[in-house]
Amino acid sequence: MSEPKHLMKNIVRKIFQILFSNYFLLIAYIAIVSVVSYNHEAWRDEVDPWLLARDVDLPGLYRYTRNSGHPGLWHIILIPFAKLGFPNFTLSIVHLSFAISTAYLFLFRSTLKKYMVVLLLFGYYFLFEYVVVSRNYALSIFLLFTVAAIYEKRFINPILFGFILFLSANCNIYATIITSGIGLIYFIEIIEQKKYESKVLVGLSLIILGGVVCILQVLPSADRQTSPTNSGMFHMVNSMALPLSMAYSFLPGIVSKRIYWSFLVIPVGFFAFFHVKKIFIFFTWVILLLLFFYTFIFMNGHRHAGFLLITIVLALWIKPYYDTPRKEVIYDSLLDFCMSFIKQPEKLFNLILTISLIVSVRFSFQESLKDIRYSYSNAKEMSEFILENGYDNDKFIISTHKPDNGKTVLYFLKNKKSFYYPSLDSFGSHMWWDKKMSESAALKVEDMVTKTRSEFIGKENILFLSDTELGEDKDHYDLLYFTKKRIEFIKDENFFLYKLK
Question: Rounded to whole angstroms, how far apart are CA atoms 187 and 201?
Fold first, then answer.
């Protein structure tokens, strides 16, 4: 080889080494998620925990978790920031810190193959859904993958192992289910290996205690909201939960007959993990519980269905600690190579999963660019108008049509700490997720205007915030502003602000 060609080859190799080095990938990841998060407008499900953390005490937190469907660890983490008056964008910074920490674990601590790590990191769930949208999911995923990172030392540091799983069980129900799967195979190992040391039993007890504490937090009260989440076991059956959860998890963004491709992932996964007893038990237990939960209790979109993918990633991550290394096979023909996918289902599983992850990367950048270019919610735009005109001053009372939507605007205001919610007969900020709150969504906007007028009769500076345009009635109200930005995500968070006469 000539000297110039040899030099060029070395330069190209060096460039690829840099581009695919863990540090460069982490820096690129941080840069992308920071830009998208900066341009993201928080919506109602994101702001509710922040408003709760700001405005309630611990007994109030318990009242909240009983009907919200989620245990309260995420809210507890937000409490010191919210109560000390940190700016509201702290919510996104705290959330991003967990997501970036997860990316670090992927790159530096996981047992996954490098190409799969890259596809996961820049795929829809780990670049957008569980990163940009600030919910309790990033926290739970960070804790679960921390467990995977220290899995080899589960019997060396069992108390730390159990404590992290205690925490993960109290982030959300989906993480609780996955935690129960890890706890199950840990229990089986303790029995099989007769690991009855006190510290191991303490670790196991912490895992069990985590599940108990979670259940105590989410047991609904008598005035629970009238929704599928808390309507009672088997009250409703979501017949589309199984196909939709697989499509959302393994082919996000694909709405066509091609979703049937996603149905292969779980069945092939059962065969792929079958020869590794503990992983097969974990995978079967968690997947069946998740599908049961989606079908009979609640499933609503990508953010819930994505825990099928999280389960698979965890299974692949901890599988080497149980797997027996196989001899490398040399294929004599193309037919032998093709037959290997049947004889070695884990090979077919990796192929199907890789194709799904490639689709996910495409959807990830599509949604990220959309969030940068357009509005996720128009609550921030409305709040900017309110701030510019001094309407967040105490002399103004702002009443809202739908409390759950209106609170999103409240989150962005500096001086105003509560809105009047006529459908709830009270001032407030966050939601309580009780029956009265869920029924308020069906009340007519005209009735809420009338109720507001009668509540503050004779008073001036009464504003009414609605996500529905009111009819022509210039004798009773004037339209001050309506949001104009194009919404591509939460389309019912488009607002109109009126001044009542």
Answer: 9
Identify the CA nearest to 357 among candidates 312, 303, 315, 318: 312
Say if residues 171 and 195 touch (Cβ distance below 8 Å). Answer: no
Structure-token pair, residue 418: 């509560």
Quote the distance between the C-alpha of residue 169 and its chain's center: 15
Between CA 304 and CA 307, with CA 306 as vertex, the angle to 5 degrees is: 85
Return d(Cα 356, Cα 250) in angstroms, integer.
5
Do the bridges between strand 426-428 and strand 496-500 make them parallel or antiparallel, or are there none, so unpaired?
Answer: unpaired
Angle at which helix 307-318 crosses helix 173-193, to 10 degrees, equals 30
Single out the residue of 285, 283, 407, 259 nearest to residue 346, CA to CA: 283
Strand order through the sheet with 496-500: 426-428, 419-421, 397-400, 462-466, 496-500, 477-482
**CB-CB contact of 92 with 78 (8 Å):** no
Phi, psi of 375 (to 5 degrees): -85, 140
pLDDT tens digit sequence for 102-123: 999 999 999 999 999 999 999 9
Residue type, 498: Y
pLDDT at residue 229, as a whole number: 42
Residue 342 pLDDT greater than 80, yes or no: no
- DSSP conformation class of 431: -
Instruction: State the first-to-last Cα distance of the chain, in angstroms, to the nearest integer.
Output: 86
> Domain ranges in the chain?
150-219, 379-500
Q: Determine the 3-state secondary structure of 334 from DSSP.
A: helix
Q: What is the pLDDT of residues 205-238, one digit of tens each?
A: 999 999 999 999 999 888 877 644 444 444 467 8
| Closest C-alpha to 176, from 318, 310, 43 | 310
Cα distance between residue 120 and residue 25, in whole Å = 12
Q: What are phi and psi of 106, to 5 degrees?
A: -55, -50
pTM over 0.85: yes
Mean pLDDT estimate for the chain: 90
